Amino acid sequence: MICTRVAIAGISSEVGKTTLLCELLREFPGWEAIKMTRGHYRSCGKDPHACCVSHLLGDEPLIRSGFQQTYASGKDTGRYWDAGAANVHWVIVTDDQVERGIRLALERINAPGVLIEGNSFLRFIDVDFTVLVASDVSVRATSKIKNSTRWAFQKASALYVFDRNGLNTRPDEIISRLNDRFATPDSKHCVPTYMPGDFPKLVARVNSVHSTRPRANENQES
After folding, report:
1. I need a labelling partner for 106 at 20 to 30 A (CA). Which of 50, 86, 128, 170 fits?
2. Regarding predicted confidence, which is higher, 48 or 130?
């Protein structure tokens, strides 16, 4: 099924990707959601009950779909359901399985739109709209910026900044730091920026992309 694909990426962990994705789900009822999780065959050094998926990894990507397989109260996928997702798909992959995993998950979408949380898959597929999420703290701790942010920044349609600690970080400062790390002098990237007070404007942009995207029957007619 042809659908509108919106990526929710982040410059580091704990910047508010899931929060924003859930807010968008409430604005686009009937849409589905995909959670991308990359794992590895060793301890990650964090609480294994909170984040480790090494026991779920195999020779092929693992994709869990539907309420019974993906709902867990308080977890990201559970929050998707609570926000009104029509269906939720949890993709668990190794680094080498990211492309196959996202493509298999997209084949399961039966909704007019899907919100995808993750970064690395953007290296392999194009989407209709990419929101790169940052926070005032994350951008000041440059060492915490993920390497996978490179793919998200290159394809970003918008930057969304949570100013959680009142540090008054300017969006242009974030763009400058990302360009310093990921861009060459002749490939500087500049995108529209939004903060929580601008959320209705972000919704309007996503809705504009969705409403102007060719539908499946239009493609067939052409």
Report:
1. 50
2. 130
